[in-house]
Specification:
15% strand; alpha/beta; 14 helices
C-alpha cells in the first residue's frame, strides 16, 4: 500500500484524465440539448445576420427550422426512451417506432442535408447515365422512405419517372402524402408497408432504380429486404444504398470521428426498433463488412463503395445484379 492508503496500481494522472473526460462529456451532452433547443426555435437563424442585440430582439426574429444543427436533436429524442431501453436490457425485446414521435421529422432534416440537397451534384452522378434515364422516365422505389422528402425532390426533378416510397410508419406516410399534394407532385406514390417479407411479396422486375437512405440496418429482416430488392430490380436495374460508414468490429471504430454518437443511435433506436418487431437488431453499426456480406447473400453480383465529401458518416453503395 502507498502512504495515502491506495493500492500500488492506482494511476493518479490517468484518473484525473478520466475525470476530465467525464466532465467534458457532461458539458457536451448538456450543450447538445441546448443546441437542439436553439435550432428548433430558430435562435441560430436569428443570430446569423443580427448584430449584438437584446434577448427580446433576438426572440422577435427567431423563426423557421433551417438545417443548422439537426444532429443535436437526436440527443433529447433518444434520452426520452432511456427508461424503456433499460427495461429491454433487463427483460429483452425492443422499443417500437411509435415511441419516437419526432424521429421521422429529424430524419427528414438529416436526409435533406446529406441526400436531397446533394442529389444533382453528388448522389445521382454515382451511377453513370442515371440522370438521362430518369429524364426519359423509369420506375423508382425508395424503401424506408420516411416522410418522402428525398423522393419528392427526385419526382419533381424528373416528372417522366414514376416514384414509389414504402415505409412502416403511418404518421410519416400521411405527412409525406399531404406535403406531396401541397407541392402538386403527381408522379409520387407513398405507401405504408411492412417490408419484413419483401423477399416473397416483391413484384419481380418492377423497378429500374431502388434506393435506401440510411434505412436497411434497422429493418426487422434486413436480409429478406435486400433479397426482395434484388427480386424487384429489372435486369439492368441499380440499387443505390446509403448506410453508416463503420467497421463491423468495435476495434475498427476506435478512431471513428462520430463513433460514440453512432453507437448511441444504434443502441437507442436502430437496434431496438428492429428487436421490437422480432427482428435481427443489427443496429446502425453493422459495418461495411456485414453490409457486403448481406448484399452478397441477397444475390447481388456487383457492389461498389463510394464516399462523398459532404457526408462524413455514410458509405454509398452502387449495387447491381
Amino acid at each position: 500500500m502507498t502512504e495515502d492508503g491506495r493500492g500500488c496500481g492506482f494511476d493518479a494522472p490517468k484518473a484525473e484524465a478520466f475525470a476530465a473526460r467525464m466532465r467534458g462529456a457532461l458539458n457536451d451532452g448538456a450543450l447538445c440539448l441546448m443546441v437542439s433547443v436553439g435550432h428548433r426555435v430558430g435562435l441560430f437563424d436569428a443570430l446569423r445576420d443580427l448584430p449584438p442585440s437584446t434577448s427580446a430582439a433576438i426572440a422577435a426574429r427567431a423563426a423557421g427550422d433551417d438545417n443548422l444543427a439537426p444532429l443535436a436533436q437526436y440527443i433529447p429524442i433518444l434520452g426520452a426512451v432511456e427508461e424503456a431501453i433499460v427495461g429491454c436490457f433487463r427483460a429483452g425485446g425492443g422499443v417500437p417506432y411509435d415511441r419516437f414521435p419526432r424521429f421521422h421529422e429529424v430524419m427528414a432534416e438529416d436526409s435533406g442535408q446529406s441526400v436531397a440537397a446533394a442529389l444533382e451534384t453528388a448522389v445521382l452522378p454515382l451511377v453513370p447515365g442515371l440522370e438521362a434515364r430518369l429524364r426519359a422516365g423509369v420506375r423508382v422505389l425508395d424503401v424506408g422512405c420516411g416522410r418522402g422528402l428525398v423522393m419528392m425532390r427526385l419526382a419533381a426533378m424528373f416528372p417522366a419517372s414514376r416514384v414509389t416510397g414504402y415505409d412502416l410508419s403511418a404518421e410519416a406516410i400521411a405527412h409525406g402524402r399531404e406535403e406531396a399534394q401541397r407541392r402538386g407532385i403527381a408522379n409520387l406514390d407513398l405507401q405504408m408497408r411492412d417490408l419484413g417479407d419483401f423477399d416473397v411479396t416483391a413484384e419481380p422486375g418492377a423497378f429500374d432504380l431502388v434506393t435506401a437512405f440510411d434505412a436497411v440496418h434497422d429493418q426487422a429482416q434486413p436480409l429478406r429486404l435486400l433479397r426482395g430488392i434484388n427480386l424487384s430490380l429489372a435486369r439492368d436495374g441499380v440499387f443505390l444504398m446509403q448506410d453508416i460508414r463503420a467497421a463491423s468490429a468495435v476495434r475498427g471504430n476506435l478512431d471513428h470521428p462520430l463513433g460514440t454518437f453512432l453507437y448511441t443511435v444504434s443502441c437507442l433506436h436502430c437496434m431496438t426498433v428492429s428487436l421490437a418487431q422480432g427482428g435481427e437488431g443489427l443496429g446502425a453499426m453493422w459495418g461495411e463488412e456485414t453490409t457486403r456480406d448481406y448484399l452478397e447473400r441477397a444475390g447481388f453480383g456487383s457492389v461498389a463503395t463510394h464516399r462523398l465529401p459532404h457526408d462524413i458518416q455514410n458509405n454509398w453503395y452502387v449495387v447491381r445484379k
